[in-house]
Design goal:
The complex is a heterodimer. Chain A has helices at 2-20, 29-37, 41-61, 68-78, 82-95, 100-110, 134-157. By secondary structure, chain A is mostly helical. Chain A has one domain. The longest helix of chain A is centred in the last third of the chain and has 24 residues, at 134-157. Chain A is globular. By secondary structure, chain B is α/β, with parallel strands linked by helices. Chain B has a single domain (22-257), classed as 3-Layer(aba) Sandwich (Rossmann fold), CATH 3.40.50. Chain B has eleven helices and eight strands. Chain B has helices spanning 2-19, 23-26, 28-33, 55-73, 76-81, 89-99, 103-108, 112-118, 178-187, 191-208, 249-257; strands spanning 37-40, 44-45, 85-86, 122-134, 137-148, 154-164, 232-238, 241-246. In chain B, strands 1, 2, 3, 4, 5, 6, 7 and 8 form an eight-stranded mixed sheet that branches. In chain B, strand 7 (232-238) and strand 8 (241-246) form a beta hairpin. In chain B, helix 4 packs parallel to helix 10 (191-208) and helix 9 (178-187) packs across helix 10. The longest helix of chain B is centred in the first third of the chain and has 19 residues, at 55-73. The N and C termini of chain B lie far apart (53 Å). The chains are: A mainly alpha, B alpha/beta.
């Protein structure tokens, strides 16, 4: 009986160790395949959600994958969530210095109003963790946009 | 007597090792230019589609389209494993829309706009020349070209004749293997599509994992004297394993273009 208990304890601890040894999460291949085959807005939305859940997983494990934040940011731009997109673009540059060139160019093309805004809102979460109702998200976007307007106005006055 | 046999054996091994090209020679420009940021250009797909008259034509075209998309999406993993920074598919699509460069220029012309505007060091282009089907056996003719945006030189240029062999029963009909069924089920694909996708993923891994370790890694330049892939390759996947052989330019061209 004692041996059986020890065996179970050993088995459970081994399982726990195996669960902790996290591997690099990857985007769901069928979702990515659907987007690569047909980059329609529906497939891009699905991919965006997938990126969001992957970002949340990497946040917990500490593993980071190059290109994921900027890809997520482009999907957010297409959804009109510009302030959030800027934060994720900035996060890509902060995490991977090599990305600066292309991310800045994408910002110049897609988010010209945020080119000089390098802020990273650390409290921001990818959508799958904090599912905001549409009205709250719109309000948050509006607040961010008005803050940016104020900042630009202040810079112009200076 | 024993000693002379041993000497001959060692000499044969040494000669064999000298024959295969080293990475320092095959990827000289990668070691000197140290590219880190790689952009994956859209697949140059020259594979023939069927004129859609029957349901099987539509199925065939779907297979080819899925394989093309899967070829693209599995290009980044082996490069990332080697330490390169690969731009993601959504951002890459945006870049492709913004630059809109003709294919001819991408393959032979000046690429400096990618370096100057986007900070990209190299562009990887894959051409899918043809699919050939014979009694369940699928063959893809691929060409991998990676060009520097700084000097416009080819850092990698490899032609691959990739074959997915299929076991047959006593009647000569193809047998569906468990591995293929599992792969198809995972993606919700039919067996034909799964076999093509499986093949292109394996080839991507074989060709792109051969590139030297990126300069972003400490292991950079430590693989200079390891052997590199030849320029023309015949890659055959059969029952859970790959058999890779050298292939002549004539053999490749006569099968792919004639």
């Amino acid at each position: 009986m004692k041996h059986l208990f020890r065996f179970i304890l050993f088995f459970v601890s081994m399982a726990a160790v195996a669960a902790c040894s996290s591997s690099q999460p990857v985007v769901d291949p069928p979702t990515l395949l659907a987007f690569c085959k047909d980059p329609s807005s529906a497939n891009m939305d699905n991919l965006s959600k997938n990126y969001a859940s992957m970002i949340n997983k990497t946040r917990k494990t500490g593993l980071k994958q190059p290109g994921i934040y900027s890809d997520y940011a482009v999907t957010l731009v297409k959804q009109g969530r510009r302030a959030e997109a800027n934060t994720w673009f900035n996060k890509e540059i902060a995490e991977f210095a090599s990305s600066r060139g292309y991310v800045m160019q994408l910002k110049r093309t897609l988010l010209p109003e945020y080119v000089n805004d390098n802020t990273i809102n650390d409290s921001i979460q990818a959508e799958s963790d904090s599912v905001l109702p549409p009205e709250k998200r719109a309000a948050a976007e509006k607040r961010a946009a008005s803050a940016l307007d104020e900042k630009n106005e202040k810079q112009n006055n200076d | 007597m024993k000693q002379s046999i041993l000497t001959v054996f060692v000499l044969t091994l040494l000669l064999g090792a000298c024959k295969s090209e080293k990475k320092i020679n095959s990827y000289e420009d990668i070691y000197s230019e140290r590219p880190t940021v790689i952009y994956l250009a859209p697949i140059n797909d020259k594979a023939e589609r069927r004129v859609e008259k029957y349901p099987t034509d539509i199925e065939y075209n779907n297979e080819i389209n899925s394989a093309k998309a899967y070829l693209y999406q599995t290009m980044s993993a082996p490069l990332t494993k080697n330490g390169y920074y690969v731009i993601g598919p959504v951002a890459s699509q945006q870049i492709a829309e913004d630059i809109d460069m003709p294919l001819k220029q991408m393959r032979n012309g000046d690429l400096s706009v990618f370096r100057n505007d986007y900070g990209i060091d190299a562009i990887l282009m894959v051409t899918l020349h043809k699919w050939k089907d014979e009694n369940g056996k699928k063959t893809a003719f691929l060409e991998y070209q990676m060009r520097s945006t700084k000097t416009n030189v080819d850092m990698l240029h490899t032609w691959v004749m990739a074959v997915k062999q299929v076991s047959t029963n006593l009647k000569g009909d193809p047998i569906t293997l468990n591995n293929d069924t599992r792969f198809a089920k995972r993606f919700g694909m039919d067996n034909g599509t799964a076999q093509r996708c499986f093949l292109v993923e394996k080839v991507n891994d074989y060709i792109l994992r051969d590139l030297p370790t990126s300069s972003l890694r400490r292991q950079f330049e430590k693989d200079q004297y390891k052997s590199a892939n030849p320029t023309y390759i015949k890659y055959i996947w059969m029952d859970g394993g790959a058999d890779v052989q050298n292939c002549t330019a004539e053999e490749y061209e006569s099968n792919a273009f004639l």
